[in-house]
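If you are new to this repository, start here. Below is one unmodified record pulled from the training split, so you can see the exact layout before writing a loader.
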Amino acid sequence: MGFYADQVLPRLIDKACGMKVTVPERQRACTGLHGRVVEIGFGSGLNIPYYPSAVEVISAVEPADLGWKLAGKRLAESAVPVERSGLDGQSLPFPDNSFDTALSTWTMCTIPDVDAALLEVRRVLKPGGTLHFVEHGLAPDTKVQSWQHRLEPIQKTIAGGCHLTRQIPELLTGAGFEIRELDRFYEQSAPRFLGALSLGYAAAPPMNG
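And here is the target side for that same chain:
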């Protein structure tokens, strides 16, 4: 992966995504998780404190070994069992209909083939299972969008392929999810080009539906 991507970027993400301003958003995204949960883009385990008691086990999908290492203290203190179960959200190593719920926080921006990843999440969710998410993406305002398009090449270079202009609701519906709740807003204290958030959950109908 290279020294920067392997040793530096996971630490930067841990610090940037671990700011206190993200806590309410993580809490909201985790609300309603239950049973067996697959979390794509587990990172350094920043969601661990907010897993509800109804969660039985977390199957964590995370490609970065250092990210998993940085999660060590959180994993040790977790009341919910967490197992590292995959490295690539685009190809999940689970049978169909394996999970009750799924979680993605600040992850869809970076996955190279996000359409494939969402189809995989839908495949491994039980029919009616829900994907809970908070993601940044294309802003609702044209002036902010213009800046996002200008800055995206730089963002992709320094932030491990992170896109600023992905349209999260459209990605979800394009993968066949039915959005049940969606809140779109700008994150407090974040630059608008980086803080246009989509938060909610979407249900997975049967794959042949």
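Two things worth knowing about this chain: The mean pLDDT is 96. The longest strand covers residues 125-136.
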